[in-house]
């Protein structure tokens, strides 16, 4: 009897990238190769994450990153793997990583792209087997190819991204990305070593009933955030907070909802980083029909001033983001 649950397998990520490249006027294939390099690193991290408990590569590495956050062993492993894949791919001239204080020169002077990444976001969840993710933004370098990478190369507004995406290491591993022409999701089949198109042209519902915020910070929230949360409770909305940004974002992207990491009395600029967390998710959310702000302005319009700059982050269904911002007017 035919298995009615099995859905037809979509095309592979490689074929999809190639097809979309053909749609791009003057596409040279460099961005296509860069996306493949990221997918390769994602396959490697998938393998490491799924074996963490067996290889004693869970837990703390014993060092801190520039944020003063305790690095997990897999943080360091993921950072090394992505840097190696992108350096060897040859398309990237520099990387900004959550795990490194300074700009990383890839020694690819002919590389035309910059990557900003959080190689393993939510890594403290590894030891309790909760989903984690990789977040990446891709920019074209603005300085002359062949010359030194400039600070302007790596401090571009999110609106200048040529591509953005994330990998979600969850009940299945997915790669979700956009090149500015909609959002598509690919599910990894480890038995074949391939990502397959599983979520074509993702659109976020215009409104939703799921709100994601760490209410432990309630006493330090600004009045408009308190008001919004109270309103969610009055409407009997669903509170869902995994404590892993990519997992919370992905659920809200598919089902509708809002993720908020606001300014608090203890974290006036919030916690999340503009360059390698908020910009990528903001581009994806907007490309899927949603909205992303820092409470006052569009995330993608913010001019970064430093590599590890934090911003308050409101992202998700347009009606929900607009509603919480009403409290500011
Ligand atoms: P809090 C993980 O450290 C992270 O960067 C995001 O993945 C997550 O949404 C957030 O921080 C959780 O922060 O303060 O609620 O524990």
UniProtKB/TrEMBL annotation:
Residues 204-326 form the Fructose-1-6-bisphosphatase class 1 C-terminal domain. Pfam families: FBPase (PF00316), FBPase_C (PF18913). Pathway: Carbohydrate biosynthesis. Substrate binds at residues 121-124, 214, 241, 271. It is found in: Cytoplasm. Binds 2 magnesium ions per subunit. Mg(2+) 1 binds at residues 98, 118, 120. InterPro entries: FBPase_C_dom, FBPase_class-1, FBPase_N, FBPtase. Coiled coil: none annotated. Its cofactor is Mg(2+). Its EC number is 3.1.3.11. Mg(2+) 2 binds at residues 118, 121, 277. It is an enzyme of class 3 (hydrolase). Keywords: Carbohydrate metabolism, Cytoplasm, Hydrolase, Magnesium, Metal-binding. SUPFAM superfamilies: Carbohydrate phosphatase. It catalyses: beta-D-fructose 1,6-bisphosphate + H2O = beta-D-fructose 6-phosphate + phosphate. Residues 11-199 form the Fructose-1-6-bisphosphatase class I N-terminal domain. HAMAP family: FBPase_class1. PANTHER family: FRUCTOSE-1,6-BISPHOSPHATASE-RELATED, SEDOHEPTULOSE-1,7-BISPHOSPHATASE, CHLOROPLASTIC. Belongs to the FBPase class 1 family. Homotetramer. This is Fructose-1,6-bisphosphatase class 1. The gene is fbp.
